[in-house]
Amino acid sequence: IDAFKAACEAKGLTKKQYTIVTDIPEEGDDCYQKAAQFADAGYKAVFADSFGHEANMLKAAKEYPNTTFCHATGTKSSLSLDADATNDTPANFHNAFASIYEGRYIAGYAAGLKLVEMYNANNAIAKDGVINVGYVGAYPYAEVKSGYTSWLLGVRKAFYESVKNVTVNMIVEFTNSWYDETLEKDAANVLIQKGCAIISQHADSWGAPIACE
Known about the structure:
43% of the residues lie in helices and 15% in strands. By secondary structure, it is of the alpha/beta class. It has a 3-stranded parallel β-sheet with strand order 1-2-3, with helices on one face. A 3-stranded parallel β-sheet has the order 5-4-6. It is elongated, with a radius of gyration of 21 Å.
């Protein structure tokens, strides 16, 4: 949301020229209804950023050819490199996504610095020369796997710069849901029980942080 506001302001748009709505569920046609409402109101572009919104956004794009529809994390655009892409999507429909794995690498590096601090304060967090870290993943998708791989590489980079002869291993627990506070909390608790010193996540609720807290 902050990035969207910054992008609008960078293009010279005032707050009266863009609208943000939240709490649009993936189930049902609420996303389509809101997208159509924006198109009817004369909005030039409509963005959606939840994976399950894509079908509704694509439906709206086909019905409103004069409005541009952009869906984050999707796979259906004719310009997408994803195997799900088709050639019959309209020209006004686009997928967009950042190189999220790069940010996860940086987050991992920060976690690695914290891990060094923890290890120096208590060497006992290493069992037989190994420290376990944990990751709560939503789905076993490429996006999630590339993210936690990058995160682990960042952790190891920072940790190994300061600590030798200790290996950092990662344990992953999947919830098979993008947002389920109970499942994410349970997954984090499993990782805690397995002795993970630091836990990160690619999931959307406060479940894992609450468990860690």
